Amino acid sequence: MTLAPADGGRRSRRGFLYQDAVTLLDCLDMLEGHWTEVSWEDLEDILCYKADAPSYRQVKTVEGAKRHSIADICKPDAAKKAENRTAATSYLGKLFGGKPLPEGTRFTLIVNETPQRDLFQFVCERGGARGPVSADDRERIIDKLNGLSLPDGRDVGWCIDRLDVLAP
Which tens digit of pLDDT belongs to each residue from 37-65? Predict the structure, then answer.
């Protein structure tokens, strides 16, 4: 199926509208005392602070039957040239890399669909804590993001241990 030129704009607006709605919810949470500061389109799609601890929040939307999985969020960006397709271009590579990672840092991947079972174990309620994650799946993510360089002496395992997924 070929998309009409206007469909690309409609699709990208849908993602921005979802991100705007999530940002609004974070601002409302700030009014209730959950965050001390909320900003957007800075180091990440949304950046929330609780005191000095950042919560980096990346919003991803999909349309249709596709559902995110561990493989999907660790896959290098196919739009990049072959030599630039590295772990750093994956969803998690972008979420974990290129920003300060002080103690108290949290990461949140926000999706508009129920993820596949392997990623679903990271899902938590808004403002809640997630349950335990399979050690095998944790290692799978570490393996898939092999070579990802992180600041502040952190490693991928440290980031995974602080990763939550919000889904509808």
Answer: 999 888 899 999 999 999 999 999 887 77
Residue-wise pLDDT tens digits, 111-121: 999 999 999 99
**Among 53, 61, 26, CA closest to 40:** 26
10 Å CB burial of residue 99 (0-12, 13-18, 19+) is middle
Radius of gyration of the chain (CA): 16
Burial class (CB in 10 A: 0-12, 13-18, 19+), 131: exposed
Residues 6+ away with beta carbon under 8 Å from 100: 54, 151, 152
Provide the whole-model pTM: 0.87
Rounded to 5°, angle at Cα 57 from 52 and 61: 170
Length of the chain: 168
d(C-alpha 86, C-alpha 37), whole Å: 32
Rounded Cα distance, 104 and 51, in Å:
10
Closest CA to 60 of 6, 99, 100, 108: 108
| Average pLDDT over the chain, rounded to an integer | 89
